[in-house]
Amino acid sequence: MRALYSLLMTLGQPFLRRKLRRRGQKEPGYLEAVEERFGRYGVPPSRGSLWVHAVSLGETRAAAILLERLRKERPELRLLLTHGTATGRAEGARLLQPGDVQVWQPWDTPRAVQRFIAHFRPCLGILMETEIWPNLVAHCKAEGVPLVLANARLNEKSFAQSQRLSVLSEPAFESLTAVWAQTGADAERLRALGAPVRGVFGNLKFDASPDSAQLLRGRQWAGQNARPVVMLASSREGEEALLRDAVAAWRQRDPAMAAGVQWLIVPRHPQRFDDVAALVRQRGLTLSRRSEWKDAPEAADVWLGDSLGEMALYYGLSTMALLGGSFEPLGGQNLIEAAACGCPVIMGPSTFNFAEAAGLAEEAGAALRVDDMPEAVDEVARLLADRPALFGHAQYAMAFATAHRGAASRTVEAVLALLDAPASAGKSAGG
């Protein structure tokens, strides 16, 4: 079956190139070093680096937490960092130190993977969260490169897909050296696919500290603004239109109260910034973009957060946040950073990507659950009319974020055990 899979992946290479060219029209980062995806590199061969694969933005931010702790323990550590998306690569560039290397993840064909392993010969590979590729895992095992899945999560939808393709997925999971799961439910699903789960360590993202300068600046701007700010955080396609319509209905019911809210939209993907701006203006609303601000936000009906790496600023600026990805059937985005910034969250029905974190946040009062966007806007109105309750949810959010820390230290301990173990002991270390 893997031979058939490899054939399909090989035949798919021209389509990958076409897709990269198309995506590169909006995100030029996809046009950078394209040949790296096929195992051809402009950097000299190396040996013995710690390889961390973080496919996109969220995984790279989780990797940053782990790498900061690892470098404190092993300052001499040299890093090989790989990604699959332009936003992940841009974020990962901030983590590099002298001697580190950053390249694209190899496309999962036998030749590309073989060239990747031969060129870099990492001492250990850490795959962040969900990235399992059959050929990559198989060739690492054949070449004696230990490979682990850290901060591992597997939602019900992905689990069902893996079960349908068990002839490919199970050998890949079984070939890993260790898996460190976020939650007990993740661990059960991973074990069912044959993964060697060595521990349930929690979510690394709880150990992130918000950028203090950004948070302070956001709170200063909030203090200068006469209206409470409500953010649609990490919004996905379709959700901005839902918000637009729900707010329009609110304005018809209660124009005075609705006019007292400053709306902020921060899209998840940067290639959508212009589309979201156009959507807002189609309803005759004025728009001010973060990229155009100087010393403070400019007056407008809607603010657009069109920048990367500034979520702490946006959460500091916001009175509360609507959770992107949860108002369409997309599984929701990460709410942990909002909680760490003391920003209460209103989330829609779809949170399967972060099911346990969302459930715990709801139990703790750090997040509130609604059925749809109109109900979310109703909840905004209720909280703005009950400031003591709103303040209480902000305090609950901070307490929730603090209570679940510790995954980073547990993961670092397990990684160091593998790095220090003899090559023959790799399978037993990490627990």
Question: What secondary-structure arrangement, pairings included, does this model have?
Answer:
Blueprint: H1 2-11, H2 13-24, E1 50-53, H3 57-73, E2 79-83, H4 86-92, E3 101-104, H5 110-120, E4 124-128, H6 134-142, E5 147-152, H7 156-164, H8 166-174, E6 178-181, H9 184-192, E7 197-200, H10 212-224, E8 229-235, H11 239-253, H12 255-258, E9 262-267, H13 273-282, E10 287-289, E11 302-304, H14 311-317, E12 320-323, H15 336-340, E13 345-347, H16 355-364, E14 367-369, H17 373-385, H18 387-403, H19 407-420
Parallel strand pairs: 1-2, 1-4, 2-3, 4-5, 5-6, 6-7, 8-9, 8-12, 9-11, 10-11, 12-13, 13-14
Helix pairs in contact: 3-4, 3-19, 5-6, 6-8, 7-8, 10-14, 11-17
Give descriptors for this structure:
single chain, 431 residues, alpha/beta, Rossmann fold, 2 domains, 7-stranded parallel sheet, disordered C terminus
Supply the CATH class of the largest domain. Answer: Alpha Beta
Helix content: 40-55%
Instruction: State the CATH topology of the largest domain.
Output: Rossmann fold
Oligomer class: single chain
Q: Indicate the radius of gyration in whole angstroms.
A: 22 Å
CATH superfamily of the largest domain: 3-Deoxy-D-manno-octulosonic-acid transferase, N-terminal domain
Gap between N and C termini, in Å?
A: 32 Å
Unreliable residue runs: 424-431
The largest beta-sheet arranges its strands as 3-2-1-4-5-6-7
Count the DSSP helices.
Answer: 19
CATH architecture descriptor of the largest domain: 3-Layer(aba) Sandwich
What is the molecular shape? globular
Structural class: alpha/beta
Query: Number of domains in the coordinates?
Result: 2
Output mean pLDDT: 94
Q: Largest beta sheet, briefly?
A: 7 strands, parallel
- Share of β-strand residues: 5-15%
Count every beta strand, where a strand is a DSSP E run of 2 or more residues. Answer: 14
